[in-house]
C-alpha cells in the first residue's frame, strides 16, 4: 500500500491541496515544552520519511532525521542548510523537500521564535496527513502522544535574563526527550531517552553526518564547552 501514491501533488501549489486541520495539534503544542514541540515536529517528519521509504535513493532525509534528534539536545547542532528546489520535485521528492525544509526551519529558529516552530508543526502534520495512505493511522498515533507530552513535558517558564546571549540554549528547553516517547506502547523512561540521544550524537559524529554542525560551526555560534555531550539536567 505504501507504494501506491494516491494523493494530489503539484509543486507549484503544495499545501493548497492539503485538507487536514492542524488546530488540535497547535493548541496542544501551546501546553508543552519547547523541546517537546521539537520532538513532536521530528515525529511528524518521520511519518513523511517512512511513507516514502524504498521509493527513492536519497540519503539526506534520514541524515536530517538523525541530526534533528541531535538538535533536541541543543538546536545549534543542526546545521543550517538549503536544498535546490528544482532538484526535489514530483510526488516523492517534493514532499521530502518540503518536510526537510520546514522541519529544519522550525528546529533552527523555534527556541527563539516560537512561531517558526508552530508553523513547522502545522505544516508537517498537514503534509503527513496528505501523503499517508490512511490519515486515521496518523491521528490514532497523535492523540495519545499529545496527551503524554502534555502530562510529562509541560510548558516551561523561561527567564529571558538567565541566558541573555544564548550561550546555554539547551538548558532553556525543558527535560531531554528520546524517540521512545513518541511510541504509545512504551512508558516514558528517562534513562532510555538519554541513552538514545547519547548514541544518536555519537553515531552522527562517527558517520560525519553532513547536517550536524561541526565544532568550528558551533564555535561561531558561541557554543560553550565540549560539544555532543548530554547535559546533566
TrEMBL record:
Superkingdom field: Bacteria
Protein name as catalogued: Uncharacterized protein
Taxonomic lineage: Bacteria, Pseudomonadati, Pseudomonadota, Gammaproteobacteria, Pseudomonadales
